[in-house]
Amino acid sequence: MSPRTTLAVAGRVLTQLRRDRRTLAMLLVLPCLLITLLWWMFDGTATGPGGGVFDRVGPALLAMFPFIVMFLVTSVTTLRERSSGTLERLLAMPMGKLDFLGGYALAFGAVAAVQSVLAVGLAVGLLDLDVRGPVWLLTVVAVADAVLGTALGLFVSAFAQTEFQAVQFMPLLVIPQILLCGLFVARGALPGLLAGISDFLPLSYAVDAMQTLTRTPATGDVWRDLAVVAGYAVALLGLGAATLRRRTP
């Protein structure tokens, strides 16, 4: 893996994103719009010991929306590169699969950082999400979760032949994580089998980290959860490099 080649791939992807205003708007604006919509829905709801509804679901939303958006955009974009023959031409150059995937991860990671700063700034600064821990660490968790979505999108793109098939992986790999991450039912209250499955899903740890930061200033558990999310992202990038094909059959 060559740092120079990886940076060149990342620069190429960022240039493409800058020219594709619709995709860029989806990456940067859509999570903020969705969070605002849900805040508006829950505005005025009764508050209890744990605060209003938005204070309870907001942390999970900050983990989920970047993850979902980055998964969709990355999986479709990578598949488009392969089906158009661009990936085959790139890999014919002195470039390895890890250079390609690393460049994509670096480029989308930079976009994810901007996306997370906007989403966290909106939720905490304008929508008054109650946060007890460091806001910067909340942003770091959001970035890591968005990078996780990027890595998962890069991985599943190897198994799809069309953009529609890439999107079809969402009910299989993304929606179960949303259902079991603790948003609807606390993970500790899940039936034994479902709780065990939840323990193996990376989104669960991202949501746990977000919820911890809104309940307490202590950060020990947050760093552990963050390490798990980062580990999953690295593992998925490695699997993506092992399964990446030059062209769609």
Automatic annotation (TrEMBL):
Coarse class of the protein's main subcellular location: membrane
Biological source species: Nocardioides luti
Segments crossing the lipid bilayer: 24-42, 62-79, 100-124, 136-160, 172-194, 226-244
Pfam family, one: ABC2_membrane
Protein's UniProt name: Transport permease protein
Positions of the ABC transmembrane type-2 domain: 22-247
UniProt keywords, alphabetically: Antibiotic resistance, Cell membrane, Membrane, Transmembrane, Transmembrane helix, Transport
GO cellular component: ATP-binding cassette (ABC) transporter complex
